[in-house]
Amino acid sequence: MQRRPFLIAAASGATGMIAAVLGWRLFSGADAFPVTRTKEEWRAQLTPDEFAVLREAATEPAFSSPLNDLEDPGTYSCVGCGNPVYSSEDKFDSETGWPSFTRPIKTEAITTRPDPRLLGLATEVRCSRCGSHLGHVFDDGPPPTGMRHCINGIALRFETA
What we know:
The strands form 2 sheets. Strands 3-4-8-7-6-5 form a 6-stranded antiparallel sheet. It is α+β, with helices and mostly antiparallel strands. The protein is built from 3 helices and 9 strands; from the N terminus they run αααβββββββββ. The chain has one domain (about 5-160): Peptide methionine sulfoxide reductase (Metal Binding Protein, Guanine Nucleotide Exchange Factor, Chain A, Beta Complex). The N and C termini lie far apart (about 30 Å). It has helices at about 5-20, 40-45, 50-55, and strands spanning about 75-80, 85, 90, 100, 110-115, 125, 135-140, 150, 155-160.
């Protein structure tokens, strides 16, 4: 399990540089979401770190979010629009340094797509309501789904049940 954070960081860094050189844009405007805002409106609503993660698909440092160790019952919602995306019932410790879940609170709560920054080798998770980048999903999770939704804590707001 110790290799996973290193491999993720190495792959993210290398492919992120390639993507920057090629000028890829994650939010090209091709996707339509129920909640839309201008770049200026997003900047006014979010902190600089939230904007970097949610709107520019940055990744917060591993083990930096207090939500990573949170075990209270409740719901995790998108910071960008308040859409409930994950339940504490599906949270587990993946030992990666990011809050991890076996599944979304409901299938329609998120959208996924191949991550162009990672040359399509990883699957990006976005909020289905506002299109904000939440994290990535991998197929190395525990039962019952076998999936690991590895989500940036800064992209989530927790509400106690």
